[in-house]
């Protein structure tokens, strides 16, 4: 019996070669990607309250307005881990010395309080600064306009239509939340910022396979840049509105381009 087994093993070795041992190597998990988010806005708009709410799920009403710091937390967004770093800025009179955060940020959240018209008007300076800086960058830095303190509805000085109009003007996302009420709505805003960063990164590195000459692409073929927005389903008591101009849509639609099979432009 032993001889038969031995001869069978010999025949197997002749046919398939010698048996090899496989070393199983454990591959370490990928380090989470990083996303740097800068919180901008006038003093008293609720920047620190939003930051603390996102990081700790708690609401604290009093902060040192002169304190500026950067915090980090690990999040999982769409089943993908990410290390989120949040810079809570302390500008007193609009965007001053903004170089310290412009080159650092992957995304910006510009905050105002719906019960303070002055804080809303200050957002225009911040939006002009960050959009001018990020123009032409690859990838672009997404911007979110955020109306805070919807719990102060009866004292509202800035209508939702005002927020939508400004967001349309600067082609950014728009949300309204309350830092003192619902954690999920605040978390949703930060997660949307992370998603937008990922989309911009993918868009900037994805190769385009074009079968026509660039000279064949004319500006007249591009769709007109008309603004649009839509209401999003709201988690808990959040009031969220997403605003995008068709400028972003025009990036995704190129009527004169022909792609090779299996590729898409987003």
TrEMBL record:
Class in the EC hierarchy, top level: hydrolase
Catalysis: reaction(s): GTP + H2O = GDP + phosphate + H(+)
SMART domains: RAB (SM00175), RAS (SM00173), RHO (SM00174)
Annotated Pfam families: Ras
Species of the source: Carassius auratus
Parts forming coiled coils: none
Transmembrane regions: none
This protein's UniProt keywords: GTP-binding, Hydrolase, Nucleotide-binding
E.C. number: 3.6.5.2
Gene Ontology MF term list: G protein activity; GTP binding
Protein known as: Ras-like protein family member 12
Chain's gene name: LOC113051973
Family: Belongs to the small GTPase superfamily. Ras family.
NCBIfam families referenced in this protein's UniProt entry, alphabetically: small_GTP
InterPro entries: P-loop_NTPase (IPR027417), Ras-related_GTPase (IPR051065), Small_GTP-bd (IPR005225), Small_GTPase (IPR001806)
